[in-house]
Amino acid sequence: MSRPAPISTRQIAKEAVRAQLAAVGYELLRREGFENVTIDDLANAAGVSRTTFFRYFDRKEDVVLGAWDIEAGRIIDELLRRPADEEEWTSLRRALQQTVRGYAADPSGVLTLLRFIRGTPALWGGLLAKQSNWQPAAAQALAARGGSKRAPTLSDSVLVSAGIGCYTVALEHWVAADGQLDFEVTLDEAFATIGARLDAASPTPEGQQ
């Protein structure tokens, strides 16, 4: 079974500093408004130089959205760990399971973050762009589950796009319900909607009605 490479101590330390800078920056952006805060403001709030800030973030949006890149990497790693003979739609849903834990652990904090992103055009557009950019790597991981050497197909890309769509719609329903819905149940319902159609479209084995 394919496993991700171990993370070095240096990388762990870098991610810890990045997380700390992001936490300080996020609070400033939310308090003052995204458009009203400059890179220098973010660096000063964190007590670092502008140069140091750019070691961890390429642009202001990454202060808020950078965590999604880390999460996407974890989802892709989980996809690679899924068995090669597991049904693709099931693998996608199970790879997303770890994101569910974050919503359950801090629903209020996640709700506030998502509302901030949804209400800030630069952040919402950036998040959608990130999701689009992750799709080729996720399709590759879906094809390579359990160490498989299979090349990704059009079907893999379509399924990944549909899975991300289900996740996004479930998220929007959860936010619209003020976090009162069970996000895991909502995500399951979204996946089941597409899953039922996939089952209906599957060819019937010869000799069966």
Account of the protein in words:
The longest helix has 24 residues, at 9-32. The protein has a single domain, classed as Tetracycline Repressor, domain 2 (Orthogonal Bundle). It is mostly helical and 209 residues long. It has helices at 9-32, 39-46, 50-56, 61-81, 88-95, 97-105, 107-118, 121-143, 154-176, 183-201. Pfam families: TetR_C_14, TetR_N. Residues 15-75 form the HTH tetR-type domain. It comes from Trujillonella endophytica. Keywords: DNA-binding, Transcription, Transcription regulation. One of its GO terms (molecular function) is DNA-binding transcription factor activity.
Give the SSE map:
Blueprint: H1 9-32, H2 39-46, H3 50-56, H4 61-81, H5 88-95, H6 97-105, H7 107-118, H8 121-143, H9 154-176, H10 183-201
Helix pairs in contact: 1-2, 1-4, 4-5, 4-8, 5-9, 6-7, 8-9, 9-10
Task: Summarize this entry quickly.
Helix content is 74%, strand content 0%. It is globular.
Number of domains: 1
For the record, what CATH class applies?
Mainly Alpha
Tell me the CATH topology: Tetracycline Repressor, domain 2
The topology string of helices and strands comes to HHHHHHHHHH
Low-confidence stretches: 205-209
Through-space gap between termini: 37 Å
Strand content: under 5%
CATH superfamily: Tetracycline Repressor, domain 2
**Shape annotation:** globular
The share of residues in helices is over 70%
